[in-house]
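Notes from the 1:1 (GR / supervisor)

We went over the backlog. Supervisor wanted to see one worked example end to end before approving the batch request, so GR pasted a single chain during the call. The sequence is below; no edits were made to it. Supervisor asked that the structure be written out right there so they could see what the output format looks like.
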Amino acid sequence: MKQYDMIIIGGGPAGLAAAIKAKESGVNDLIIIERDRELGGILNQCIHNGFGLHTFKEELTGPEYASRFIDRVKELEIPYMLNTMVLDINEHKVVTSVNSKEGILEMKAKTIILAMGCRERPRGAINIPGSRCAGIYSAGTAQKFVNLEGLMPGREVVILGSGDIGLIMARRMTLEGAKVKAVVEIMDYSSGLKRNIVQCLDDFDIPLMLSHTVISIKGKDRLEGVTIAKVDVNRKPIEGTEKYIPCDTLLLSVGLIPENELSEKAKVRLSKITGGPEVNESYETNIEGIFACGNVLHVHDLVDNVTKESYNAAKNATRYLSYERCKKRVIEVKVSNGVRYTVPKYINTYKVEDSIDVFFRVDNVYKNKAIAVYFDEKKEILRKKRILTPGEMESVRLTKDMFESNKDCKIIKLCVE
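Structure output shown during the call:
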């Protein structure tokens, strides 16, 4: 059985950033395991710009952003395995994988960084009635067809869901000559970034139909059209509001799910809200020595935030390897009144050096509200916000002084006020 100090599972933006930071921090015995045929992950098919504004202070496409990290991995001579599928991880940090050249491989790690990313929610998860005809794709699959394979999924398109991938594909399909007839969203707000709504829909006069959903699909061999309807506050179709839209393609952008089947096998505790691991301030899971970062932890809106998070996870995994331990006084971060979850969920106050950023999302659109942070009953932060939306990740910074002045604190709470 091969032995490594660190195994990084996933060669996308999170895995690449974590590997680079670990190597630069002195970890030489490490390896990246990637199931695809090349490094870069989902960025390879994201040919639109808007990446790298925070990390590199310039605007890059997805492949350009990925290539910066791939080039650095090669410069640092970090080993990686491609076309290799991880089958199992156990709580003892034994990783079982398989590829066509070497067959079944077992590796033992002192520490593991989970960076498997996320996948799209399929049609079966949303129970749309109708036939299983051709012409129904996830938005990411359509993106791969158009951007990597040079294939057009269809010519008359309806998009269900206003996530960022769906919004971006509305623009992409339009630029390739298709007619995008509508983007249909069951909620009364878009789950995508505001800039994508403006640049991908408004600029191309593509209608965004909020509080609507697809209620039936027509077509035998190929999709012929969909029927949409307005929904009530319980997201149930309202009778009499049905509208038929002829189309040959339906793209689904109905949410992303962190890829955590391997995490479950390792007995990592997962959040019921995010579907990702519950981690502490070091991005360490409940299994000692197993860390998580990127979209496998929680779905991000900006890849620059994935990079920053992965740097931090690798830095802390490196400290774990050096047996750098400290005393523990763990505070749980709880949420209420509009905040859905936080990352991290637990904070060891002895590990807070100067400050720690806590990331979170809200559960609805809030205007002219504030984010409040309580240490037990004491309000430490009240930050006014003109608008808060579920599509954009927020953060608050907790300083060392706050923890010092609340030494007996049992619970930290975040809420919208």
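Supervisor's comment: The first strand starts at residue 2 and ends at 9.
Batch request approved.
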